[in-house]
Amino acid sequence: MNRIALNKILTLLLLAGMSSCSSIEIFKENTEVPIRKPYTSFVIINQEVGMRSFSSEFIDTQVQIHLQEALEAEGMVYDTDEPQLVIRYTSNEDPRKRETTQNFNQFPYWGYRVWDPWMYNPYFNNQNTTSTSNYELVQVIVDFIDQEEDKLLMTLTGVTEVSSQKTKSKKVLKTTDKIIDYFLFQIQNAQ
């Protein structure tokens, strides 16, 4: 087995392992043209025009830095004059609520010598507790655009749930990592 095939298999196993132990989903959408060549230079539009995509400026800056560092680590060069690849990202931060109901039966079916319908009625004397928890459904949406053809290579959307503001930054960066890994895997398979 040659080295490239081995790298592809290991990358696939790594992606499968990462997706099985985390609560981040990646969706590929809006493909206008296939990936035909390796890309050596890129630009992040949000950074160049000062467009903020997250409600938190801190998280927005972290995503920009994270995208740039990850692609530069793969040997790509940040080029504002003639980039081969244009990257644009946005987010959707949707606050939601989840209700959880727990049923505590006062008189279970077992525990008495004889089941007595007057002592225990499953529709009467039950203690139900309902609790509501708040969470945020966060979508990180990244467009990868071929500069030469001015068409979308793909739009990758990472979806995750955030239960507290303390963990939001970490979850968004993990989602960004998975999007980058997916994109780089697609580039490797196209070559």
3D architecture notes:
With 191 residues, the protein is of the alpha/beta class. It has two domains: 3-98 and 135-190, Double Stranded RNA Binding Domain, CATH 3.30.160; 99-131, no CATH class. Helix content is 35%, strand content 34%. It is built from four helices and six strands; from the N terminus they run H-E-E-H-H-E-E-E-E-H. The chain has helices spanning 3-20, 45-49, 57-73, 165-190, and strands spanning 25-29, 41-44, 77-78, 85-105, 126-146, 151-162. Strands 1-6-5-4-2-3 form a six-stranded mixed β-sheet. Strand 5 (126-146) and strand 6 form a beta hairpin. The radius of gyration is 24 Å and the shape is globular. Mean pLDDT is 80; it is low at 18-22.
Helix-strand layout with pairing:
Elements: H1 3-20, E1 25-29, E2 41-44, H2 45-49, H3 57-73, E3 77-78, E4 85-105, E5 126-146, E6 151-162, H4 165-190
Parallel strand pairs: 2-3, 2-4
Antiparallel strand pairs: 1-6, 4-5, 5-6
What would the keywords be for this entry?
191 residues, alpha/beta, Double Stranded RNA Binding Domain
CATH architecture group name of the largest domain: 2-Layer Sandwich
- Largest sheet descriptor: 6 strands, mixed
Number of helix segments?
4
Rg result: 24 Å
Q: Number of DSSP strands?
A: 6
Shape: globular
Condensed summary:
By secondary structure, the protein is an alpha/beta fold.
